[in-house]
Amino acid sequence: MTKPRLQLILIIVLVLLAGSLLLSQNANPDQDLLFGLKRVQEKAFFKLKSTPEDRVKFMSSLLDLRLQELQNVFNNKSYDYILPSASRYSTLAGQITELVVANNLTAQTQGLKEQFLSHQKTLDTLYVAYPKNTENVEYKYIMDDFNYLNLYLDKLSKVK
After folding, report:
1. Measured between alpha carbons, how far is 72 from 75 in angstroms, rounded to an integer?
2. Which end of the chain has fewer CB atoms at under 10 Å, N or C?
3. What are phi and psi of 46, to 5 degrees?
4. By C-alpha distance, which of 25, 141, 34 is closest to 88?
């Protein structure tokens, strides 16, 4: 291949990669390929965080995204994605809590508690609005997330 042709191909590949990464930032769990790219990107950015405080801040922003994804799945009536979305949410909330407890990050606890309490309001709203007279019983996973946050709030209250 000629050098200009190779350069053109590389530019096109880079543009496609950049475009897919931009598109993936708003992807929901029911958009398999883009959501997979989003998760890879999140993991890469997480690895770049060097201190526990930076990791907690990053994970906290991801937790807001996980809640938004759960809301989007609910609003789109993509009920098959409620369990994986709820599971990702509660897992991340638990990981944040464990990171705060393990590193005794007292400065992070109040903001995290406020975030969890705010998220519980949203989860409760989703739970109440979920259609319960269907064969879908995924609404239980939303309540599980609510209950997990209570456990995590209890753990955070013991960080001194």
Report:
1. 5
2. C
3. -60, -40
4. 141
The secondary structure of 60-89, three-state, reads HHHHHHHHHHHHHHHHCCCHHHHHHHHHHH
Give the CA distances from residue 39 to residues 29, 69, 76, in Å, rounded to whole numbers and listed in that order: 10, 12, 20
Report d(CA 117, CA 152) in Å as an integer. Answer: 11
How many helices (DSSP H) and strands (DSSP E) are in the chain? 6, 0
CA dihedral 111, 114, 119, 120 (to 10 degrees): 140
Q: Where does CATH 1.20.120 sit in the chain?
A: 51-160
Per-residue pLDDT of the chain (160 residues; tens, 9 = 90+): 677 777 777 777 777 666 666 666 666 777 677 777 777 777 877 888 889 999 999 999 999 999 999 999 999 988 888 999 999 999 999 999 999 999 999 999 999 999 999 999 999 999 999 988 778 788 899 999 999 999 999 999 998 8
